[in-house]
Amino acid sequence: MNELAITVIGRDRPGIVADVAEVLARLGANLTDSTMTRLRGHFAMTLICTGPEAVEVEAALAPLAAEGQLLATVRAVTPDGEVPPAGEPYVMAVHGSDRMGIVAAMTRVLVDAGGNVTDLSTRLAGSLYVVLAEVELPAGVADTLIDRLHRTAAELGVEVTLRPADPDLL
User: Fold this and answer.
1) How far apart are the first and last CA of the chain?
2) Of 31, 122, 148, 167, which has the fewest CB atoms closer than 10 Å, so is most exposed?
């Protein structure tokens, strides 16, 4: 069984998720992990599935991209198997006036403390910028990390919170 990483991006329209899922189902591909979002009128989907060869999936998805509205890419990946969490789950939330470098600065603080960002989303609403990040942190670093996050947030003129995540909700 092949494990594939697939991305589909393009101008949003109703039915893209159903179209992609139907193509994969017809091929006997099992969708194991996926994420999809709409970004300012653009559709973006990334998924992992198991099933046929990458070239077969690319060919089957080609008609969806034929009108030039979507771009689909498929590549074979090596299965990781069951990966235990590398740390404790936390959620970092950042909000404030939009400015360049918020994501770069805040995620650098996390990485420098040994953290790993496992999910990230941002949203600009008017002049308000919001970042939500799920992160894994090494045991015992959260108490000292929050001070560094607060200092960096103050330099950027934004607010930050860091709280333990409920693993059952992630």
Assistant:
1) 27
2) 167
Cβ(88)–Cβ(135) below 8 Å: no
Nearest to 90 by CA among 12, 165, 6, 167: 165
Give SS3 for 127.
Answer: coil
Residue with tokens 């949003």: 12
Token pair in block for residue 128: 């308000």
Query: How are strands ordered across the β-sheet holding 116-125?
Result: 116-125, 128-137, 88-97, 158-164
d(CA 134, CA 74): 26
Q: Kindly list the averaged pLDDT for each block of 10 residues, start to end, along the chain of length 170.
A: 94 94 96 92 95 95 88 90 79 96 97 95 94 95 96 98 79
DSSP-assigned letter for residue 139? T
pTM above 0.90, yes or no: no
